[in-house]
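Quick one, tokens below:
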């Protein structure tokens, strides 16, 4: 059976059929998958009951895997999964649902804000791949917002205003929105701010995107309150229903999204007793979007 792509949203999202991700992907299909990611922003694979090793192997069709370090407050001794897998579940290292007041759970609530994975790194991520191994009975959907369509819908004055702006990103900024500010000195160093261009262009499609994220704390050259208000307005524009797709997870689903062109967020779910086992691999980017400031501090 040959690989096919079916668009399932007016602006983006391609559902892929004809591939069994337990098997190696041909070079021709790998090329088509990367082109589909550029075109659709989000790729959905149903019924893929894969192992961690199979997920890692499939991920490499999109590029080099980014190690799951520097993006959370989990200690090395608390790690449940391999360092190449980001654990975005509600489970601790023993496979038990985390207590409501667990510091790791409090930090991970930031995933409910609209964001782009690894925009807090000097070289931001290319794409993320999330595999659903178990799900709660209610809630926990993931929503995606397509930034090329959001950019296209801006008025010409705003497009001109944002074209050359540079935003400052840090996990400290996004977690601060939820009142999480108890960072150790080492964590503050790890989460030191980075600079990212506010507008990015896709090399394959030529379309421009607004590179938005809850991790943005200010804009270079702007006063912080004005910058945050401006970013808030842009995020409200970019997450209007017409630009958003909600994925309702089923066990065995794997979803790939382009962090260069999409924001996403997880929706609330009851996690006091039901496990939500979600395992993410991330493909690193290849270049910075803006020159970094060596003396910047959070």
């Amino acid at each position: 059976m040959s690989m096919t792509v079916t668009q399932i949203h007016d602006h983006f999202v391609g559902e892929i059929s004809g591939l069994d991700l337990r098997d190696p992907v041909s070079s021709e299909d790998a090329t088509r998958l990367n082109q589909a990611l550029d075109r659709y922003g989000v790729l959905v694979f149903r019924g893929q009951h894969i192992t961690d090793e199979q997920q890692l192997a499939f991920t490499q069709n999109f590029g080099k895997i980014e190690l799951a370090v520097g993006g959370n407050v989990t200690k090395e001794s608390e790690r449940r999964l391999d360092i190449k897998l980001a654990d975005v579940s509600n489970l601790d290292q023993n496979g038990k649902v985390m207590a409501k007041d667990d510091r790791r759970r409090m930090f991970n609530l930031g995933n409910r804000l609209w964001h782009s994975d690894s925009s807090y790194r000097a070289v931001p991520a290319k794409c993320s791949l999330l595999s659903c191994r178990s799900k709660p009975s209610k809630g926990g959907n993931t929503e995606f917002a397509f930034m090329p369509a959001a950019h296209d819908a801006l008025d010409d004055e705003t497009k001109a205003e944002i074209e050359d702006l540079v935003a400052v990103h840090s996990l400290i900024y996004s977690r601060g929105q939820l009142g999480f500010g108890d960072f150790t000195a080492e964590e503050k160093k790890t989460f030191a701010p980075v600079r990212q261009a506010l507008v990015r262009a896709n090399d394959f499609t030529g379309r421009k995107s607004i590179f938005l994220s809850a991790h943005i704390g200010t804009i270079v050259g702007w006063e912080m309150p004005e910058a945050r208000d401006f970013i808030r307005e842009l995020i409200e524009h970019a997450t209007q229903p017409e630009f958003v797709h909600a994925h309702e997870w089923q066990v065995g689903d794997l979803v790939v999204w382009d962090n260069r062109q999409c924001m996403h967020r997880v929706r609330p779910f009851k996690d006091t007793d039901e496990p939500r086992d979600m395992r993410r691999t991330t493909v690193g980017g290849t270049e910075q979007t803006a020159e970094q400031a060596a003396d910047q501090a959070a």
